[in-house]
TrEMBL record:
The keyword Signal applies. This is PQQ-binding-like beta-propeller repeat protein. It comes from the Bacteria. Residues 479-702 form the Pyrrolo-quinoline quinone repeat domain. The lineage of its organism: Bacteria, Pseudomonadati, Bacteroidota, Sphingobacteriia, Sphingobacteriales. Residues 1-20 form the signal peptide. It comes from Sphingobacterium ginsenosidimutans. Residues 38-90 form the Calcineurin-like phosphoesterase N-terminal domain. InterPro entries: Calcineurin-like_PHP, CarboxyPept-like_regulatory, Ig-like_fold, Metallo-depent_PP-like, Metallophos_N, PQQ_b-propeller_rpt, PQQ_rpt_dom, Quinoprotein_ADH-like_sf. Keywords: Signal. Residues 116-287 form the Calcineurin-like phosphoesterase domain. SUPFAM superfamilies: Carboxypeptidase regulatory domain-like, Metallo-dependent phosphatases, Quinoprotein alcohol dehydrogenase-like.
Length: 792
């Protein structure tokens, strides 16, 4: 009896508070959105709740209970499809927290079998810019269910700003964040400020038909408290609860899983392919690069508020998901509203022989989807309507049609009407003159839309053919190499490519050569478009290849660092491959061969010279801003002329020694190379148009300003500073004593050698590639994917 009494007494003693304590709460449908549970509100069963260590589901009463973990700093709920958080998806556990209930409300925007979301990344700013309005308004107009920021909000100022201005309440859609390397800042531990402002660094949620997992950058400017093993251990528990028929969408600041999509820590690892992985979205590199591997889309985007490190266009990404996975990926270029330009006919247009009037309109809006474009043509003097036509889309900027018109000389008005899907309209009236002969020094002969964007791929003329290549920074259906008849613009053949061709094509001995961003090399019969041979890397990898390949004496040079190779164009045989240095980022600078020396640049690394026979590194220079490689080099008399950041340099070709330099206030982070024309060194800039310098003294001789960029590409160039961004990415082409170039403001310019304007034409889209001159004809390829032929 005494023993039994002692046993009962022991059982009645208090249990250790730490062992007894459970974190308990409920998940409920907050019907009146007041963030408080009321008796008539539905409690939700089978909803996942986690403290970052344990993962449990609510029972049939909507209640959950997690053992107390002293290391846990948050509770988070995996919001189920069709819902959104009334307030937040997480509850901080710092201090004494009494209410551990999660309040969810129905999300009427979501659909069970379809989801649209927006990715933004690497905004790195404490400034309010038009991109914020673009993203918010696009989300509302196009019914995007959520906004995902994939990191680098950037240091204390940027993080504080985003928490106040780019949040779920002000963006009117659930807005989520992940940790970038620049979001790990000084404090108690690296992610402390992020947690204070945005909540847990890793979590999951369901939306539409998909399961999303968000994890943080493994390392950064300051050491985080989390470890890879900790995150993977949690991830295993989270994914064990998911419906594996759902697509898994992985969100992180960088892509580091490797070709097998296996995440590894010191002790833990997990194969994401076992959980129906369909996409990995990230940022970090400040470039636009989409590739597909093992059926998984790997999607990197540049920031929406500035040009990319590799001169990628500022954008945000719109993603459509269905039950099978990724349905569409579409970049949206920022800071454009009601952008409308009549491209063809031009102000002074010669009548063609076919008695039809080609109509081409460039139209773009960063927030609203264009439903249709109509053009009404009337006589200028009488106002009599002569034609009313609806245009067909070609790519994401261009709309076109052909109108039976006859040889009717005179002045006409074109009234362009843009119909947006939301019912809004925009109007623009432009005039043009039809003439039987040229009434200006330059006239448009033809224009042809090639149904894809054109970045740095300038028209290549060979015989009676014009070759050009397109890029697609979205789902990848519009990248190809195209041959046109140079006299009419008619398509002769088109060859789809594995990924985007972003830089120059090369030609020799009947062979057309190209390299895409994955470093796939194509050798093509220029007459037929038939592939002769290809060279493919084992797996796509970063950095992308956006440089201009070089061709010399039948040897083709493409790739950078360990992916650089020299290839015999007739056999496809690799002569050498893989060189130093490695590292750095992609650069749009051209590779070039000068006197048995191959010159190549690595952004944020160095300008390098190689022996073309062996690939041996001869020298490299990275001081005084030379490591910032956006543009190429120009050779003359044993010297190289180039730019870096804000300096102009003259280097000894053989040694790489700096013979002369001049540091300017100008920003030279553009894709162009210097051009030496007699006593001028002409160099485009990021913000101030074109400048000409004395090649002997490097002192400025004249300056020509261009307009504000339509699309921002030069690294870190942005409208947020409220200063002119007059970017010119195109190197200057000299012909018949004139200087020709295209600019980011959409204009094609002709100057004399004193820098005075002779003529300009508005093509309605940025021009990044060089102008090609062939006899009396000028060929221009713009970013919208329109190729134009002028006669001068």
């Amino acid at each position: 009896m005494m023993k039994l009494t002692k046993l009962i007494t022991c059982l009645l003693l208090p249990i250790s508070p730490l062992l007894a304590q459970q974190r308990t709460g409920r998940v409920f449908e907050d019907q009146n959105s007041n963030n408080q549970f009321e008796q008539n509100e539905k409690q939700l069963a089978n909803i996942v709740v986690s403290d970052g260590y344990g993962v449990v589901k609510t029972d049939k009463t909507g209640t959950y209970s997690l053992p107390h973990n002293p290391n846990a700093r948050f509770l988070s709920v995996t919001i189920p499809s069709g819902y959104k958080a009334t307030k937040t998806h997480y509850i901080p556990l710092r201090g004494e927290v009494k209410n551990l209930d999660f309040a969810l409300t129905k999300d009427t925007v979501q659909q069970a079998d379809f989801l649209r979301f927006i990715q933004i990344t690497d905004t790195e700013t404490p400034l309010y810019g038009p991109w914020i309005d673009n993203v918010r308004n696009y989300a509302q107009q196009q019914k995007a269910s959520l906004i995902m920021h994939t990191g680098d909000i950037c240091y204390e100022p940027g993080m504080l700003f985003h928490a106040k201005q780019v949040n779920s309440e002000l963006m009117a859609r659930p807005t989520y964040y992940t940790v970038g390397n620049h979001d790990l800042v000084k404090g108690e531990y690296g992610e402390k400020l992020f947690e204070d402002l945005f909540g847990p660094t890793y979590y999951s949620f369901d939306a539409g038909p998909a399961h999303f997992v968000v994890t943080p950058m493994p390392n950064g400017d300051y050491k985080p408290s989390y470890t890879a093993d900790q995150i993977i251990a949690w991830l295993k528990k989270d994914l064990a609860t998911m419906d594996r028929s759902k697509p898994l969408i992985f969100i992180n600041h960088d892509f580091f899983a490797g070709p097998d999509f296996i995440l590894k820590g010191e002790k833990e690892q997990i194969d994401l392919m076992q959980f129906n992985l369909k996409a990995w979205f990230y940022g970090h590199w400040h470039n636009n690069f989409v590739f597909k591997q093992k059926g998984v889309y790997v999607v990197c985007s540049n920031a929406p508020n500035k040009g990319g490190i590799d001169n990628s266009a500022a954008q945000f990404v719109v993603v459509d998901i269905d039950k099978q996975g990724i349905k569409d990926i579409k970049p949206i270029y920022t800071n454009l509203r009601d952008h409308i330009q009549l491209v063809h006919p031009t102000a002074d247009q010669q009548i063609n022989m076919l008695e039809t009037l080609p109509i081409v309109v460039s139209a773009y809006d960063s927030e609203r989807k264009i439903q249709k474009v109509a053009v009404e043509i009337s006589a200028h003097e009488t106002g009599k309507r002569l034609a009313n036509v609806q245009l067909s889309p070609s790519g994401d900027w261009l709309w076109q049609a052909k109108v039976p018109f006859g040889k009717q000389k005179g002045q006409y008005d074109a009234l362009i009407t843009i119909h947006y899907e939301n019912g809004e309209q925009a109007l623009k009236r432009q005039s043009f003159n039809l003439a039987g002969h040229a009434e200006s020094t330059m006239k448009l002969q033809w224009s042809a839309a090639v149904n894809g964007n054109i970045w740095k791929t300038s028209p290549l003329i060979v015989g009676d053919k014009l070759f050009v290549a397109t890029m697609d920074d979205g789902i990848g259906t519009n990248h190809s190499i195209i041959a046109l008849d140079k006299r009419t613009g008619k398509t002769l053949w088109s060859l789809p490519t594995i990924n985007s061709i972003k830089h120059k094509l090369r030609y020799s001995d009947g062979i057309l050569l190209a390299t895409d961003v994955e470093t796939n090399v194509y050798a093509i019969d220029a007459n037929t478009g038939k592939i002769l041979w290809t060279k493919n890397p084992s797996n796509p990898s970063l950095p992308t290849f956006v440089s201009g390949p070089a061709l010399d004496s039948g040897i083709y040079y493409a790739g950078l660092g360990k992916r650089m190779s020299a290839i015999d164009i007739h056999t496809g045989k690799v002569l050498w491959e893989g060189v130093d240095p490695s590292g750095g980022e992609a650069t749009p600078a051209e590779l070039s061969v000068v006197d048995q020396t191959l010159l190549a640049g690595y952004n944020w690394n160095a300008l390098c010279a190689y022996d073309i026979q062996t690939g041996k590194l001869l020298w490299k220079r990275q001081e005084d801003g030379l490591r910032f490689r956006s543009g190429g080099v120009t050779a003359k008399d044993g010297y190289l002329y180039t730019t870096g950041l804000n300096g102009i340099f003259k280097l000894n070709l053989k040694t790489g020694e700096i013979a002369q330099k001049s540091i300017k206030t100008d920003d030279f982070k553009v894709m162009a190379s210097p051009k030496i024309i007699e006593d001028l060194l002409v160099m485009p800039t990021s913000t101030n148009g074109i400048k000409a310098y004395d090649p002997q003294t490097l002192e400025e001789k004249w300056h020509f300003s261009t307009g504000e960029a339509l699309v921002y590409t030069s690294p870190y160039s942005s409208p947020d500073q409220h200063k002119l961004v007059g970017t010119v990415e195109s190197s200057v082409t000299e012909a018949k004593g004139k200087l020709f170039f295209g600019a980011s403001d959409g204009y094609f310019y002709a100057l004399n050698k004193q820098g005075k304007l002779l003529s300009k034409f508005n093509l309605g889209a940025p021009i990044f590639s060089e102008i090609t001159v062939d006899g009396d004809f000028i060929y221009i390829a713009d970013f919208a994917g329109n190729v134009s032929c002028f006669k001068f």
